Amino acid sequence: MSWWVVIEEQRGTGDGRSWSLSETFPHADRETAEAEALRLAREYQPAHPWSPKSRKVLRGPGGYLVIVEGRTSTFHFRLSVVEEI
Q: At the top level of its lineage, which domain of life is listed (predicted)?
């Protein structure tokens, strides 16, 4: 079995925003996957906004919700740590 970090983020603008699976990162164990998820929560550059001003990282069951505020809009993405079965 392996553990994965998956990133889901908002794509598009205005009413055309939708959720999309952006990246997947397989890992051999849960500890490594959780460490990578935390690193990505702090460092991953989402598709939007183009000019990020600030970032809030919120931890919840199984991963993180990251809110990125740009010059004109706010976007968010999720990082989940999941097990392949």
A: Bacteria
13-58 pLDDT per residue, tens: 767 777 888 889 899 999 999 999 999 999 998 887 778 889 999 9
- Locate tokens 């097990």: which residue? 83
- Report H helices in 1-85: 30-43
C-alpha 34: how far from its chain's center? Answer: 12
Would you kindly state where each structural domain of the chain is located, as residue ranges?
A: 3-83
Beta-strand ranges (E) seen in 12-70 are 18-27, 52-60, 63-70
Structure-block tokens of residue 65: 């919700």
pTM for this one? Answer: 0.85
Q: Say if residues 25 and 44 touch (Cβ distance below 8 Å).
A: no
Name, in order, each residue with C-beta under 8 angstroms of 18's C-beta and a sequence gap of 6 or more: 10, 11, 12
| The pLDDT value given to residue 54 | 93
